[in-house]
Design a protein that fits this description.
Elements lengths: L1 H17 L2 E3 L2 E10 L5 E2 L2 E2 L2 E2 L12 E6 L4 E6 L4 E6 L11 E3 L4 E7 L5 E6 L32 E6 L5 E6 L2 E2 L6 E7 L4 E8 L2 E8 L2 E7 L14 E10 L6 E9 L5 E10 L2 E10 L5 E5 L5 E7 L4 E7 L5 E8 L7 E6 L5 E7 L2 E7 L1
Parallel strand pairs: 1-26, 2-3, 8-9
Antiparallel strand pairs: 2-29, 4-5, 6-7, 7-8, 10-11, 11-12, 12-13, 13-14, 15-16, 16-17, 17-18, 19-20, 20-21, 21-22, 23-24, 24-25, 25-26, 27-28, 28-29
Length: 368
Amino acid sequence: MRYLSLSLVIFLSISCLRFRVDNLKDEILFRIPLGQTSDTWEGVVVNQVLTNVPITVPVASNVVALADAKQSIIKLFDRNGRLEATIGNPDFKSIPGIPHYPFRFGSIGIVAITEDGDLVVQNRISSKGIEVPVGQENVYKSHSGVFSTSGTTVLPSFLVQISQKGVVKFMLGASGENSEPFRYMEALIPGEGEKLFVYHRIAEEMRLSYFEDGQLKGNIKEASLSVFKSPEAKEYDITLDKILPHPEGEYVLASFSYFSKKDKRFKFRRIYRYSFTNNEGVFMKEIQDPSEILFSIRSNNEFYIWETEDQGNSIRLQVHNSEGNHVNNKRLPFSPPRGQWRETYTDSDDNIYSVRIRAGALEVYRWI
């Protein structure tokens, strides 16, 4: 009887740990004023909605980087919202007392910051000499203000790795340094040190490419993933939801949705682990609720699954260990009004950030 009681205590202890919820607090890191002057962040309001806010705001220890696509420059702001420096357009009229480092970008797309503080900028190729069919949008001249994460438009571009003082480290193409351009880019994910992951398309196939110090180390091609050749592929239509690299480049987690071929309804979601050298996936987790989504990977090999709570007023991040077991929860309670809050995202150092638009400013918060 004594052993049974001890077993029960252990079981209850594990259950409490498994379903514990840690409520995180939001800590404001940056508050960038919105305005129409050169030393503010230019906000374009359409139908009372700010339309040109990037999905994620690149954060270094003491600066954020925001692209001003109209002037083809990048603005660096400190934690007090003061403009620290500008990088880009050689014809830009610099602000007295604010350093400007010239570089001729074509059209600025995604901007990220490496662990060492360098900027990685998607530099879209200039439209000069490119003929666009009548009636078709000239994507080469469009400003990067939509920040769409999906689409089929080909946007040839290079990645420029440049220091915060305008020193260009290298130009990166789809096959590495100084190679052919990326044709379409959907995500840019800095990893540990000089590691960089790019989710992009070659021909009609999406792939995740892994670079380090400007050299291509490997890639994972969507069509070659083993799940699409599994027996379940005969019964279900399988789509890739998301593919996320571990910051150290050891592996990725890929999330797939399974839909019935008969009625096209969602059936379940599965998460697999893949390496850059092996297309055979290791099963990690099956999810029945379509609203639960793979969110990010931590450097300690745990991963988060996103679950919306309280009609969107809070988010519960389910913490899973390296074997896929649900071990803990973290809640992100958004203070009202919820409509002020934008994207929530992480970086390679396991920080969780959220963007908020409030009282004429763009704010970046860290959850602690």
